């Protein structure tokens, strides 16, 4: 399995069981191209500054870059005719770091507050490569990672199986959904303390980090960190360390929990060859 496919499978949101071997579906008329001959995938655009970072770090990073004058805050004239710069209003921060129980309750409430989610993601593989695309989720059981060109990979879960497709190689690997990191996020009712082992919690600025372990993943235990923005009340990033020790991070932005994804995003054709 190509490295990108392996990383995608490791990040597939699912619930159930995963078979140890995939089922390859290839065209009958011509053999699939050898996977070892696949060309290197060009990198997508550079990661936006501060994406997935605690806001305190992001603000510090942004201040090191020049700010166009067009984006400078407009001056406000006071009663004494002295101009001052208006600062955007911010929500109040938690008065104290959350305990483990409070952090789990906060994230459970967030995840159970919606059944659909779509947005953009930026993925960083263990070898440093960057990939981007669209993420679609519909609980229970359905998801789609749609990578942007020139990547030809996509990952789809239809509630029963996970398919890893490569349009260029005309292959489709099928797995039973489950034993993958983050599978608990597609359950109808999410309970982090029931479905995983919570190993730690920390707060840095506005970002709450919850560390989890899932011992039921394929190949052994996976370690997962969920980074949650307490001010925006949104999941910003997850980081997965697989049983082999490889780390993959996915940063999320432009999230929408109101719009219902197109059901065509979650269809797997078990007969049709790509």
**CATH classification, class level of the domain at 3-26 and 97-260:** Mainly Beta
Total of DSSP H or I helical runs spanning 4+ residues? 4
Mean pLDDT, all residues: 74
The name CATH uses for the topology of the domain at 3-26 and 97-260 is outer membrane lipoprotein receptor (LolB), chain A
From the spread of the alpha carbons, the general shape counts as globular
Look at the helices and sheets and give the structural class.
Answer: mainly beta
Distance between the termini: 17 Å
Question: Which helices and strands, and how do they pair?
Answer:
Blueprint (H helix, E strand, L loop, with lengths): L2 H9 L11 E3 L29 H9 L11 E3 L5 E3 L14 H12 L4 E9 L5 E9 L3 E6 L5 E6 L2 E6 L4 E6 L15 H4 L1 E8 L2 E8 L7 E8 L4 E8 L5 E10 L18
Antiparallel strand pairs: 1-9, 2-3, 4-5, 4-14, 5-6, 6-7, 7-8, 8-9, 10-11, 11-12, 12-13, 13-14
Please tell me about this protein's structure:
The N terminus is likely disordered. The radius of gyration is 21 Å and the shape is globular. It has 4 helices and 14 strands. It has a domain of 188 residues: Lipoprotein localisation LolA/LolB/LppX (outer membrane lipoprotein receptor (LolB), chain A, Clam), CATH 2.50.20. A hairpin with a 5-residue loop joins strand 4 and strand 5. The strands form 2 sheets. A 12-stranded antiparallel β-sheet has the order 1-9-8-7-6-5-4-14-13-12-11-10. The chain is mostly beta strands and 274 residues long.
Quick structural gist:
The protein contains 4 helices and 14 strands. It is mostly beta strands and 274 residues long.
């Amino acid at each position: 399995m190509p490295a990108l496919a392996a990383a995608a499978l490791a990040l597939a949101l699912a619930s159930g069981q995963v078979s140890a071997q995939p089922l390859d579906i290839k065209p009958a008329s011509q053999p699939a191209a050898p996977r070892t001959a696949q060309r290197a995938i060009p990198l997508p655009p550079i990661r936006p500054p501060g994406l997935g970072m605690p806001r305190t770090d992001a603000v510090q990073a942004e201040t090191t870059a020049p700010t166009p004058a067009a984006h400078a805050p407009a001056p406000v004239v006071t009663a004494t005719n002295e101009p001052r710069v208006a600062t955007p209003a911010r929500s109040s921060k938690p008065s104290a770091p959350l305990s483990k129980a409070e952090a789990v309750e906060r994230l459970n409430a967030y995840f159970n507050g919606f059944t659909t989610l779509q947005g953009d993601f930026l993925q960083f593989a263990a070898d440093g490569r960057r990939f981007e695309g669209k993420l679609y989720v519909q609980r229970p059981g359905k998801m789609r990672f749609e990578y942007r060109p020139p990547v030809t990979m996509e990952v789809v879960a239809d509630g029963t199986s996970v398919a890893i497709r490569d349009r260029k190689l005309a292959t489709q690997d099928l797995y039973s959904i489950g034993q993958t990191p983050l599978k608990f996020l597609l359950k109808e009712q999410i309970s982090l303390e029931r479905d995983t082992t919570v190993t730690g919690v920390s707060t840095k600025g506005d970002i709450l980090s919850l560390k989890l372990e899932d011992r039921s993943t394929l190949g052994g235990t996976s370690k997962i960190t969920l980074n949650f923005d307490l001010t925006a009340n949104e999941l910003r990033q997850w980081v997965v360390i697989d049983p082999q020790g490889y780390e993959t991070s996915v940063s999320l932005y432009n999230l929408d929990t109101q719009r219902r994804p197109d059901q065509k995003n979650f269809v797997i054709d078990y007969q049709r060859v790509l």
